[in-house]
Design brief:
Rossmann fold, three-stranded antiparallel sheet, globular, binds BIS(adenosine)-5'-pentaphosphate
Length: about 220
């Protein structure tokens, strides 16, 4: 099964894609995480992406598409993939369709997570991540037991450099201009599942699984 999580920055794509990939035993490919890993390792890809990410702009299509398609060619992707953060615009979506079609595959479903702009601002401003195990917290909604420390591995929590007020504003602008039109693109293809992202994390997961099961039964 090939699924895409679509949503504005902070909608919960990463949170839900992680949960669904675990439940369904699929590979989880997050373009933002791939860029951040490359940045941390100081690779050429990381250096190319750095300026764009820090400004909240999209990394050029050819770089992002090449990186994701290459990652999708790894063996763990063969049984299916949950994509998070890719595609981000029409050009990337078409490149993905083409690459899958070459293997006689296609995207099965696209889960669009809807969250109000006010809630997005709250979530991004409060997000903290464990530098060791990457667990995501929100210091207002789901704080760790000990301030600044991960509950799971006691790693130090950090704030993403692109989670500043100015960069969040830019990322939201880019989302509405370039990524939101993909909702209609996939709706027209009959792939779209819309989920209310303002429920609790577990409830959003439950509704997503229920919608995927329903589609699966209809498709059989
Ligand atoms: P990326 O890493 O993809 O960032 P993003 O799209 O801005 O999304 P986020 O990771 O901020 O949010 P999310 O929706 O995953 O939410 P999360 O689950 O973390 O991209 C970063 C940058 O990389 C881009 O700006 C761009 O420069 C570049 N890039 C990436 N992909 C690219 C591409 N394809 N092409 C070109 N450039 C690309 O949750 C957020 C917070 O909310 C957390 O604190 C979480 O705990 C909390 N939360 C989640 N769900 C709930 C809930 N239901 N209730 C309460 N709180 C919740």
């Amino acid at each position: 099964m090939y699924s895409i999580f679509l949503g504005a920055p902070g909608a919960g794509k990463g949170t839900q894609a992680t949960a669904i990939a675990q439940k369904l035993n699929l590979a989880h490919i997050a373009s933002g995480d791939l860029f951040r890993q490359a940045l941390k390792r100081g690779t050429g890809l990381g250096r190319q992406a750095k300026n764009y990410i820090e400004k909240g702009e999209l990394v050029p299509n050819e770089i992002a598409t090449h990186m994701v398609l290459e990652r999708m060619s790894a063996p763990d992707s063969e049984k299916g993939t949950v994509l998070d953060g890719f595609p981000r615009n029409l050009e990337q979506a078409k490149a993905l369709d083409k690459a899958l079609a070459r293997k006689s595959l296609e995207i099965d479903n696209v889960i669009s997570i809807k969250v109000s702009e006010e809630e997005l601002q709250k979530r991004l401003g409060g997000r903290r991540i464990c530098h060791r195990c990457q667990t995501v917290y929100n210091i207002v909604e789901s704080p760790p037991h000990v301030e600044g420390k991960c509950d799971k591995c006691e790693g130090k929590l950090y704030q993403r450099p692109d989670d500043t007020a100015e960069t969040i504003k830019k990322r939201l602008e880019i989302y509405f201009e370039h990524t939101a039109p993909l909702i209609d693109y996939y709706r027209r293809k009959g792939k779209l599942i819309e989920v209310d992202g303002e429920e609790t994390v577990d409830e959003v997961t439950r509704r997503t699984v229920a919608a995927l099961n329903e589609r699966w039964l209809i498709a059989r």
